[in-house]
Design goal:
Layout: E1 2-7, E2 10-15, E3 23-25, E4 34-35, E5 41-42, H1 45-51, H2 57-64, H3 68-93
Antiparallel strand pairs: 1-2, 1-3, 4-5
């Protein structure tokens, strides 16, 4: 069990022992999280922007490229030049850093 001191809907401290004025929370609640209106907890956007890793251009491209099967289908139907256009659009969207 975990307990949190919450002030102005912000988790100030965590304890594993019950303490007066602390409330019981889930194990995935940590200091600096904000209690939302639905009683769930999450980090504020400002915190996420600083602390969460952003994808590299390679990872962004990998997520957006068509599957190999779809790329082969593109080559079959549209030729190499059509396939190159598809790939280039993703490369242009996420240029090398």
């Amino acid at each position: 069990m975990k307990y949190a001191l919450i002030e102005n809907n912000i988790v100030k401290q965590i304890s594993y022992e019950p303490i007066e004025n602390y409330v019981e929370v889930e194990d995935n609640v940590f200091a600096d999280m904000v209690k939302k209106s639905d009683n769930s907890f999450d980090y504020p956007d400002e915190y996420k922007a600083i602390h969460q890793k952003s994808d590299t251009y390679v990872e962004k491209r990998e997520k957006e490229y068509p599957t190999i099967v779809d790329q082969l289908d593109d080559i079959y139907h549209n030729g190499i030049d059509g396939w190159k256009e598809t790939i280039k659009a993703v490369k242009d969207k996420y240029p090398k850093e």
